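cron nightly-structures :: item 1 of 1
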Amino acid sequence: MLYFMTEHAVPAARLPSMWLACALIILFSVGFVLPCMLDITITPDSEFTTFGKGTWLLIAGAFWIFGATAWLIVGRPQRLSFLHRSSPYPAGGFGPQEALRRHPAAQASAGGFSEALGGVAFLAAPRPLGPDDDPDFLLELERRIREAREGSLLARPAGLVAWT
């Protein structure tokens, strides 16, 4: 019997293609079953109609492809709400003026929305981006540094010379 089994052994040239086929089957099955199991765990307990959450996880885990398929066909609640969801936005979207007016940068700018510049008033006059770009802040910082230096020179005893 051992001779019979070795006589019909798989040729070495076919082994890489067999490994590739096995890897593809495993990747496909994991890529199909894991999302189904995640869907089972995410589904609220109140939406289960046939079995409970634990039972469906057991079925999908034990029967792998068949369990996941059963979940999709029988167990998964109908979720067609994305087709019937009403949008608070107009069907055609906003026009350019309305979109610029609603943009956070336009709302945050001091000038707001101005029709004189075509709705882009917040882009016309660049504002300082940070404290190091603000000239008023830089002047105040320079004044504070100068006062601190003068204050430290006045606080030293008269006999010491400051090396700077």
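cron nightly-structures :: done
The chain has a mean pLDDT of 76.
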